[in-house]
Amino acid sequence: MDNSKSKTWSIVLTMGFTLGLVGISGMVLSDDDDDYEGNDRWSQSRLDVAPVDNAFYKEECGSCHFPYQPGLLPARSWQRLMDGLEDHFAENAELEAADVEQLTTYLTENAADTSDYKRSRGISRSLDKNDAPLRISTTRYFKRKHHELPDRMVKDNPDVRSFSNCELCHERAAQGSYDEHQVKVPGYADWDD
Amino acid sequence: MKTSDDALRKGLFILLLAVPLVSQASVVDEQLVSYQATGAGPFSAQKGEQLWQQKVVSEKDGRTRSCTTCHGNDLRSTGKHAKTGKTIEPLSPAVNAESLSSAKKIRKWFKRNCKWTWGRECTPQEKGDLLSFIRNQ
Predict the structure, then answer these.
(1) Per-block average pLDDT, block size 10, for chain A (193 residues)?
(2) Partner-chain contact B83 A93, CB within 8 Å
(3) Structural domain of residue B101, as residue ranges?
């Protein structure tokens, strides 16, 4: 009698323990904003990508669009992009050769595949070795992070228009922070994923 | 003694205010001289204004483009980048001290924007006319 009672208890305990483990791992796995479990999980205060720290880059590239951090694309992408400034997403963005060289050096030396920051590593890992995309929004990592957003909130939203306008929804994008809890989609104040 | 001090101060103040204008003027003048060196000139602000408004249908997207597409009709107001929507500071030197203050920037933007707007580089004559128009806005 005693024996079967303790057996029952041990089964209950084992089941409880297992359920608990499943619960914890479920929490870890479902934390979609976190690519690196383990140590990185506990250092959320760190920025997502290294902020731009080059005045020349900010001036030259930021006068037409949001100055995307170099850590958002791998070096091979930046090289390809800077080689084709004459047709820069259908705009002409030509620069003098010396300026192109200076900017390319900054971009490639701080690119996603040389950076230790969370998003940089995520983007870099989501690409095939020879893949050199020109648009951050076409990387697998980016798509995974934005897949739940319907067209009406981005492409068809007159206040956003395109995924290229990072800073319109990520209010601290310029500082290198893309935390999903800080996202505010214009026109969708109360939206929460 | 006091009055002369005041006068000196006033003079200095006016001089400081005038410095950006002087540098703008000399930068633009240097550009005009360099265009003349290629055989262009004389330049006309009125011609420049016509060029400013000149509409060209783009071979790339079939849409009409002109300087005003991004800069607008009033050079004393801000413009808006046709694609990214980013604000463009007014081109008029009267309201934007930075405008026309750098020869390098003048070269850069003429090259890019002539190609985007008209599908070709601007001639030295056109650049001279446009600068003559813009500087007086």
Answers:
(1) 60 56 46 45 67 97 95 98 96 96 98 96 96 97 96 95 95 94 88 64
(2) no
(3) 2-135
